[in-house]
Amino acid sequence: MSRPRLRHLALVVEDAAAAAHFYCETLQMEEFHQDPDGSRFVTDGYINLALIQRALDGDVPVGFNHFGFEVPDVASTAERLTGHGVAEPVLRGGDRPFAEYRATDPEGNWFDLSEHGFLPPDRRS
Predict the structure, then answer these.
(1) Measured between alpha carbons, how far is 105 from 35 in angstroms, rounded to an integer?
(2) CATH number of the domain enclosing 79
(3) How many structural domains comprise the chain?
(4) Which of 51, 65, 97, 120 could form a disulfide with 19 if both were Cys (CB 3.0 to 4.6 A apart)?
């Protein structure tokens, strides 16, 4: 891989289980991960789609949430980002098998950075 690749999209949904079922049944995606909060992750084998379960008391609206890039080197990518005036990417917490860092563009849109990609470990190339 010589340049970053868009490999991840995330939507906040009212019913993650129903949304995952829809994408699996209609577009032949495959569910590969479920978070304790009920969020589901599906893939077409190249890009994954996070279906983030909206919390009843949450203030995050339903709809588009963030996207993610697989990058060859987070440190050099972070250097290019900060060189363009945005904040340095921060390490994401949790035990997810993907998305090591969170960054923002100049408009404040969130995106993730990952050196090992967004697919399940057994599917990584």
Answers:
(1) 26
(2) 3.10.180.10
(3) 1
(4) 51
